[in-house]
Hints:
The chain is 44% helix and 22% strand.
Amino acid sequence: MFDDVAAKYDLTNDVLSLGQARLWRKAVARAVDARAGERVLDLAAGTGTSSLPFREAGAYVVPCDFSLGMLREGKKRHPGLPLTAGDATRLPFADGVFDAVTISFGLRNVQDTRGALAEMLRVTRPGGRVVICEFSHPTWQPFRTVYTEYLMRALPPIATSVSSNPDAYVYLAESIRAWPDQPGLAARLRSAGWERPAWRNLTGGVVALHRAYKP
């Protein structure tokens, strides 16, 4: 499915998020706070666009994705990035090699969420951090109702006009509705072994930015 939407993926995200996707990427970069010389794993990196701020900060970033179509598109756009194919539940990296691991809008698409969180923990050094940016639950009930209506009614026809595979965005809407809320994801992080999980709401809770640390 992601192979099919790779060519227009970044454009479609900008349109469907009403331009918020770029602001969310900036918030992720600030939360990861990558430093020169650090090693950052960017999971579900898609075409590699999300990895660019970490490289610009001087870190060595490894964009990793399950979709070969996304990676091929990313290689065209960013030939200097070490784009890597990998399964989030069986990462092709040694233990404790990354200072930070981040995943934006990808954890929701991994069938075994707990397994992915445990793998992220494994490849992170002690004291290292994880930053997860994911769709969540708006905190204001009236807005939550409007948002749900947008997801189920407006998003599919908009996707039809800009995406190469609009059915993928019907799945997107359904998966967002089924995803746990902010405390629910924090509990999953804690259960997988991460410490001090905390979150910050973006765009009224449409998106939540979670961060935790490896003991």
